Amino acid sequence: MELSIQGLKEAFEKEGYISEDEIALTVYLALKLEKPLLIEGAAGVGKTEIAKVLSRIFDTELIRLQCYEGLDENKALYEWNYQRQLIKIQMSKDTVRDDELEHNLFSREYLLERPLLRAILAEKRPVLLVDEIDKTDEEFEAFLFELLSDFQISIPEMGTLSAKQIPIVVLTSNNERELSDGLKRRCVYLYIDYPTVEKEVRIINTRVPEAGAILARQVATAVNYIRSNLEIKKNPSIAETLDWARALVALEADRLSPTLIKQTLNLVLKHRDDLQGFHERIGAEGLYDYVTTVKEGL
Amino acid sequence: MTLENDLVRFTRGLRQLGVRVGSGEMLDAVEALQLVDLADKNLVKNALRSTLVKDHEGYVIFERAFASFFAPPEEKKAREQERAVREQEQIQRRRQAEQDLPANLSQQQKDTYGRLPEAEKQKLLEYVQHSLEQGGANPRFPLTIESVVRGYLNYWRRQLTDPVEVDFTPTGDNELDAMVEQVMAGLGSVDDPILFQDLKDIPDKDLPQVTALIRKLSRRLATRISRRYHRSRRTRLIDLRRSIRENIRHGGAMLQLRYKTRRVQKPRLLLICDVSGSMARYASFVLQFIYGVSSVVKGIESFIFAEDLERVTQFFGARRGFEETMLDVISCSSEWGEGTNLAAALSTLFRRYSSLLTPDTVVIVLSDTKTMAVEGAAERLVQMRRSVKEILWLNTLPKAQWAGSGSVAAFRGQSEMFECNTLAHLEKVMRTHLLKMA
User: Which residue in chain A has the smallest CA separation from B53?
Assistant: First the structure.
């Protein structure tokens, strides 16, 4: 597709991702400048979804590297299939010459490709999602930004492998620790905050159209209130808002009521202390009054 | 050319404001600008922000800097004129101070003198005049007056809050300096005020907000600390013993290799908080801090000290409300509001709790360093430094006063000391040291 900011925004919406101009522009710049896109923001605001949507828009493979503490090159890049090599040695020790055997053993046949290598060797430009990069340690981060600057890797036994196409790289971070300047420098940066009421209404309308206008607005207003006014351990994510809306639709509700809020609140607040805090601070009746009296809720 | 020139100047301004922008990022910004419609201010802003700013905190600064730098020419001109007038006034104030006061004053002290209320100015002048007449024969006397005048002006400097007074090194580019000045002045007053307010001055009504912020910070610390994992070394070592045992079933062929792993130890945190008389104004903060950290980080040991040391871990271990915990701590402790003897407190720590001081321990001291027996305390700190991983000192004394404090000088050598009298300071220490260390 011919890349343009407006075109990208429309493609995102077609895939069910409501994006503001800022998101569309930043993604557009990352694609045009062929730079990794680093997305930060609280959990559940739709960071990972951007990579998924991009793979659908460009009809290409999504290669995902889920980060965790202790992740190393063997899990992220490649590993030799040691067992298979060993069996091959056992099977051919009397039939094949030593140097030929060694040459065969270190070929792609015996290479276990992990996500980063797969992204480099892919025939069609893939989307590489490096999810929750803040969970890895700094050593791995340094290794990663070297790879992201050259898009080539050296395997001692095979030589240097360069990317056939520069992958579309999306890195996400929940901001649990500060990322190194080196990594940030190589990326185009996007921060995604929780959506406004307006945006969340549009998200609900797109993803749960059966909710109807009134319920969608009331749910979005209620979730927005919870996020902005209650000091809770875990803010509801967009996915939880959608789950709540779906649950209310399943209960055949077309608008909120104090009883419905009480019955279904555990879909949005999933911590005992948060539920307790909610009942102490505002309660189901209070939240109902709020969503029905604020201008947007009418 | 004008665009590139503007971009270089704008980037320079951002750097002055503390946003880290490298030349690579600036080149990205130039490329990004070629891809957007330059007539659309919003697109230009977003393109610059995505390429120049790489953290959320920088967003606020960028927004204001952009609005200020790319303001209409008339507005910029008016701002520069205002700045020129202010500079002129400042020069006059400084000259006036030099004429009126026979003392060697810093530029800031001279500025403060110029901004004193008229009655206070008269009072000061009368005092100086009177003192000079009285003690004229004593050669040391002018020095005494000088230090009184300085102290007086320092006091008033803290009292008089000038929204325009900001501390930065001018670049010499008037337009740029006016922009930096405007953004800095705005940030100090509009950003979350509690974050930048001295903790002793935060009114009781805002304490819940402080608790929430401390808990949020502590939670980040806890998530970081509570992750434990076994990590293989980069060059992995085969664990022969385990590999042989594992592969007996394959007739001795080494099909499954086992590697030696290194266990990453959680640091053990030990909090020592000063609750003596001089720290009374920070008492709420101290308690909030221990409560906040203890409620999210398991296994933390906490102590309070004044004339001696007292262990308070048991009060914070139970999952109870803040008020209840506080009542218990205050009613069971005899240390509150006493004088300070850090040396005695540390001796008690060595005598009774030496098992807590291990090479994994990170000691966090929260104190203004004001104590009796400074030398003794410094010796104990040296001793402690040998047994523990690190000592971090969160000092509530403003950094400007550190130079004149003997105790700060004595303790700084043995610990990493950070100014910590606002939540912003605490946030910074947590982010830059505690989280990385953990």
Answer: A189
